[in-house]
Design goal:
It is built from two helices and two strands, in the order H-E-E-H. The protein is mainly alpha-helical. A two-stranded antiparallel sheet has the order 1-2.
């Protein structure tokens, strides 16, 4: 069975199922396992339980290191979701639909005109 070029409809469904399972596993890893590992690592290994002071001349900003830890996770989620959206856009544009030379574009139907 070829996953890249399915020969019939059943092979196509199997390949789509395998791709969907791969995407699901990737989502679990990138959106659950890695952020969870970072939170445990920051608390247990780095011991980020105290405050972080950022001097700004006459003023100081005091943040809990746990807030910084959580901001890193939020940035991670943003990067992963933007990368996923970009990959989906690239995947959708890989084979543009082109009309045959003798075929005309159909009139749009449905919806509000």
């Amino acid at each position: 069975m070829s996953v890249l070029q399915p020969k019939n409809e059943s092979q196509r469904w199997v390949s789509l199922f395998l791709v969907a399972m791969g995407i699901f596993v990737g989502m679990i890893i990138f959106l659950a396992v890695i952020p969870s590992w970072w939170l445990y690592f920051a608390d247990a290994t780095l011991k980020w339980t105290d405050n972080f002071t950022l001097p700004l001349g006459i003023r100081k900003i005091v943040l809990s290191k746990q807030v910084i830890r959580d901001i890193i996770v939020v940035i991670w989620y943003g990067v992963v979701l933007l990368a996923a959206g970009r990959l989906i856009g690239i995947w959708n544009k890989r084979t543009p639909k082109v009309l045959a030379p003798d075929e005309s574009k159909r009139e749009a139907t449905g919806g509000y005109k």
